[in-house]
Amino acid sequence: MKSFHVRLLAGIALLTSGCGTGGMVGSSVDSVSAAPEPAAGPRPTVAVSSFNIAAPKAEKEVGNGLQAMLTMALLRTQCCQVLETDQDGSSSADYLVTGALTEFEPSVGGVGASDYGSGVLAGFMQEVGLQHANADAAHVGIDIRLVAQSTREIRNATLVRGVAVDIESLQFSDDSLGSGLEVYSNTPMEAAVRDAIEKAAVLIAKSAEPTG
Asked: What phi and psi, each to the nearest 5 degrees, are found at residue 45?
């Protein structure tokens, strides 16, 4: 494990199908519990596709890097069997995870919630205490969908946000940063990305159920 001086401030907006609403219902939490224990019986198979890059400041190469990081994080949960995707992005897995990087800000040093107006990110920063940040910070927003391949049903749609501020020490896994992200090694952006990926893996592990 390597140490990094940050305080992790992460929020996750969980989007789940609402009964009788015909749409999506959103709620916000700032942490998720640990992944469930591996089931004694069959485990679902899951594959992760390359991420779509919709954030202006992120290079397209980052999509493959996030795919590799989430694949490794899912393996660590030991809650599902993780398969590789084919060259065309398809897979025979029970579930396919698709992702889009929608927010990518390597450094927002010296800004806080008041600098973001009244949007969703501003509300999130208020919740985690970043009204007026005094240190360099970074944030990411990752849209994750878990799709049951047999029915094409979206079982879970989650917007995961990670924010890191360079003020405290945090422990990371020894996994390397994904392709296109190496330049952010030992920076708040590394912390924000890793936190978002780990939380996404836990949520996927809890949502994917054996189909057999």
From this structure: -100, 140
- Tell me if 179 is assigned to some domain: yes
Q: Is 18 helix (H, G, I), strand (E, B) or coil?
A: coil
Q: Whole domain around residue 153: which residue ranges?
A: 2-17+43-207
User: Which helix (H) or strand (E) element contains residue 92?
Assistant: none
Nearest to 160 by CA among 143, 185, 177, 172: 143
Cα of first residue to Cα of last residue in the chain, in angstroms, is: 37
The C-alpha atoms of residue 27 and residue 24 are separated, in whole angstroms, by 10
Please indicate, yes or no, if residue 34 is contained in any of the structural domains: no
What is the pLDDT tens value at each position of the chain, 212 positions in all?
A: 444 444 444 343 443 332 222 223 233 334 555 566 666 678 899 999 999 999 999 999 999 999 999 999 999 888 899 999 998 888 999 999 999 999 999 875 544 434 444 444 444 444 444 444 445 678 899 999 999 999 999 999 989 988 887 645 455 556 678 888 888 888 888 888 988 999 899 999 989 988 76
- The pTM of the full predicted model, rounded to 2 decimals, is 0.74
Domain count, the chain: 1
